[in-house]
Amino acid sequence: MPAPATPEKSGAQSGALARRIISALILAPLVLGLVYGGGWPFLLMMAAAGVIMTAEWVALVFGATPSAPRRAEFWLVAATAVLATLLMPVAPLAALGLAGTGLGLGIAWRTMNRQPVGVLAFGVPYLVLPLIAMVWLRADPVYGRWVLFWLLATVWATDICAYFTGRAIGGPKIAPIFSPSKTWAGLGGGMAGAAAVGVVTATLLGADGSPVALALLGAGLAAVAQIGDFTESALKRRAGVKDSGTLIPGHGGILDRVDGLMFAAVGAAIVALVHQGPSLAAGVLIWQ
Questions:
Q1: How far apart are CA 285 and CA 288, in angstroms?
Q2: What is the distance between the alpha carbons of residues 54 and 101, in angstroms, rounded to a whole number?
């Protein structure tokens, strides 16, 4: 059983939860509206997110006040993220090539400066691939907005159900060295919540939807999202900080809010590539 919380700790937790809820109520409609509308407003949101995510990543891996060479790396990665994001809807292969070029230039830069290349070799795919995956899926004129709605709902349900299930049940931790609060019970609750989203989505799709397939896919992506959570937790622990930033009250930075979505989006894009449907995003949502 979890240890009983003191009144002071309970009050702090309640205050943090209230800030999280208020921030979510403000940001969620904005994000959903831009996803629904698509077009340039959506692309600009994704590009802006790429710049902020890059700044937070640089602060985590290089320190809060990077030197001039590290600022150059920020601009290189941020430019790669923005340009690849804007190019993805019209030329996906060119966008991937641009991401590869940015990665190659970054590795060459660090090699010339006799710096380890591993951090950058991880950072560019970590930041760029989720952005272009979401833009690529949204570009589907038939199911684009709906697959992103489903993906967002799946990740949000995972986070919410994992949080409350973990607090209620407690039990063994999954990987305390990375994230001391994540439990196996929480993971199970998150996967159940994501599966429920899949069943609801399949019901809304009608004859084209498969409740079993979308429930299993949602549960699988919930587990993938938790890997994203652990990855960012490892970066924060390495940097010795609690949050990646302070932009969102109650949530921290952008990376704190989208760490699971980043991995789940790439997972959904891989599903779309492997299970090809009548349209791009149909490979994710339509199972018959």
A1: 10
A2: 17
Q: Which two tokens stand for residue 77?
A: 């990665």
Could you identify the residue written with the tokens 């979401």? 134
Residues forming beta bridges with residue 173, ordered by sequence position = 183
Q: What is the mean pLDDT of residues 132-146?
A: 95
Q: What is the pLDDT of residue 17?
A: 64
Interval 27-73: pLDDT, tens: 889 999 999 999 999 999 999 999 999 999 998 988 765 576 678 88
> CA of 198: how far to CAs of 70, 98, 130, 169, 217, in Å?
42, 34, 21, 24, 8
- Taking only the tens place, the pLDDT of each residue in 196-233 is 999 999 999 887 889 999 999 999 999 999 999 999 99
Q: How many other C-beta atoms are found inside a 10 Å radius of the C-beta of residue 74?
A: 17
Tell me, rounded to whole angstroms, the distance of Cα 180 from its chain centroid.
20
The structure's pTM equals: 0.90
Across the range 234-256, mean pLDDT stands at 84
Label residues 217-251 b or e (16+ Cβ within 10 Å = b): bbbbbbbbbbebbbbbbebbeeeeeebbbebbebb
Q: Which DSSP symbol is given to 275?
A: S
Q: How far apart are CA 84 and CA 37, in angstroms?
A: 20
Length of the chain: 288
Handedness of CA 224, 230, 236, 242 (dihedral sign): positive
Q: Are 80 and 102 in contact (CB under 8 A)?
A: yes
